[in-house]
């Protein structure tokens, strides 16, 4: 790795006016944001139409294909208020705030491959669902569901029970018992886990979702750019918590919900950062000149979620640009990203992608850690796990899941690079960018960080 760093650093010293990542390493897809002020955000009211349009497309075009692949004739999503199935909100139109009382969705595959979308509810959902029963008595509701299933006579009935995938385990024990009690024995024997369908439903992005996803990610990256600037940070005064709360409150101002509290850490000389240390940043500190700062943020908009980590540098007195060593270190992080995304191939499991990445980085003596996960309706979505921060070996079950086309990922991990300017201490380049795998290549949805955020 030192050979790589020296080559990058040498070019930086010869041609400082040119970005190190552009001159010494082909770090494509870089994009710089400065502010979210010029990015459109729809009001909650105006989000309803596009969200429901995208839902209708998913139900009409995607669900039939996935039910056919999972060999399910019927899929039941049954849940109650206060205990909603994790997949419920991905299936119902907006505005929907709860599975009122007991809500039953029935997806029945017809001979031509299309899907009947039926509801058995006290409160009918309306489009895109046809009400098969509406009433007020719970026993009658369950009997109506049993009669409906008997009338359709499906051979394989998917229910949301799963040992390994939480998103596919939304049918509570009580509801499962009630379903088995109300069904005739012959039909109860046809109940099977719908986990394959649920994971594929949640991880797959449609063309419409792919079209809008870059805007969602752009908003996340743009707010980070604001936070990692002199608009927010006064060296020697502003704390890491101040910056984290700016990010949180800025998203609230934009009416963008976060799915976790943003956090900000810093690294500096003499702080220590060993090769074995999983994470080197510290929080609860006042930001000073010469610090490397880092943040991790995640938002959801139009039902699509992001997960983003970026880095900034606070210039010392007399500095007019980020030191060449740090520019070279960021380029190493970009190179780790490329080794990872180059390993993406349809059908390859998450564990296999991790193995291929480690083989490349080890051959180049890079000190890296990969912990990449799918994105979509959740920030930590189901699909292939590609390493974990506390396990750089195979991950059972989730790591064995294969890659499919039209799936999104948080390209997450880090590279440690020793700095002469820090007397050989490592700087940890922690990066995470939202990206789409279309089956052939990985494309960053709103570019990726190839240049440092600079605080003067």
From TrEMBL:
One of its GO terms (molecular function) is aminopeptidase activity. Transmembrane segments: none annotated. This is Xaa-Pro aminopeptidase. Residues 216-383 form the Peptidase M24 domain. It comes from the Bacteria. It holds the Pfam family Peptidase_M24. The lineage of its organism: Bacteria, Pseudomonadati, Pseudomonadota, Gammaproteobacteria, Alteromonadales. It comes from Pseudidiomarina homiensis. Gene3D superfamilies: Creatinase/methionine aminopeptidase superfamily. Keywords: Aminopeptidase, Hydrolase, Protease, Signal. Residues 1-22 form the signal peptide.
């Amino acid at each position: 790795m030192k050979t790589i760093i020296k080559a990058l650093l040498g070019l930086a010293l010869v041609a400082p006016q040119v970005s190190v990542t552009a001159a010494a390493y082909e770090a494509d897809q870089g994009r710089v944001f400065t502010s979210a002020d010029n990015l459109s955000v729809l009001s909650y009211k105006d989000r309803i139409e596009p969200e429901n349009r995208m839902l209708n497309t998913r139900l009409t075009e995607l669900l039939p294909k996935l039910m056919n692949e999972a060999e399910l004739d019927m899929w039941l999503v049954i849940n109650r208020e206060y205990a909603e199935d994790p997949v419920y909100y991905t299936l119902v139109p907006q505005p929907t705030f709860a599975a009122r009382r007991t809500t039953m969705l029935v997806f029945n595959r017809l001979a031509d491959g299309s899907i009947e979308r039926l509801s058995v509810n006290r409160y009918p959902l309306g489009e895109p669902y046809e009400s098969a029963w509406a009433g007020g008595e719970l026993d009658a509701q369950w009997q109506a569901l049993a009669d409906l299933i008997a009338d359709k006579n499906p051979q394989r009935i998917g229910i949301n029970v799963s040992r390994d995938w939480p998103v596919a385990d939304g049918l509570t024990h009580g509801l499962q018992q009630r379903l088995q009690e109300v069904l005739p024995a012959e039909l109860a024997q046809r109940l099977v886990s719908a986990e394959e369908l649920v994971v594929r439903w949640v991880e797959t992005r449609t063309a419409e979702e792919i079209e809008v996803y870059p805007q969602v990610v752009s908003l996340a990256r743009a707010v980070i750019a604001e936070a990692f600037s002199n608009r927010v940070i006064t060296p020697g005064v502003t704390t890491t918590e101040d910056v984290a709360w700016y990010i949180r409150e800025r998203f609230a101002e934009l009416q963008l919900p976060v799915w976790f509290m943003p956090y900000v850490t810093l690294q500096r000389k003499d702080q220590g950062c060993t090769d074995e240390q999983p994470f080197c940043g510290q929080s609860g500190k006042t930001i000073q000149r010469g610090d490397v700062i880092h943040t991790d943020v995640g938002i959801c908009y139009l039902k699509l979620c992001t997960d983003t980590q970026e880095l900034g540098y606070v210039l010392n007195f007399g500095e007019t640009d980020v030191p060449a060593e740090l520019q070279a270190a960021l380029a190493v992080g970009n190179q780790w990203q490329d080794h990872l995304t180059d390993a993406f191939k349809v059908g390859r499991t998450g564990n296999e992608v991790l193995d291929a990445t480690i083989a490349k980085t080890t051959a180049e003596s890079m000190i890296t850690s990969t912990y990449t996960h799918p994105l979509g309706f959740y920030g930590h979505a189901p699909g292939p796990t590609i390493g974990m921060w506390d396990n750089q070996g195979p991950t059972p079950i989730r790591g064995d899941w294969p890659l499919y086309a039209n799936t999104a990922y948080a390209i997450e991990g880090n590279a440690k690079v020793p700095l002469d300017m820090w007397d050989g201490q490592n700087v940890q380049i922690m990066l995470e960018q939202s990206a789409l795998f279309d089956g052939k290549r990985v494309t960053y949805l709103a570019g990726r960080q190839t240049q440092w955020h600079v605080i003067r």
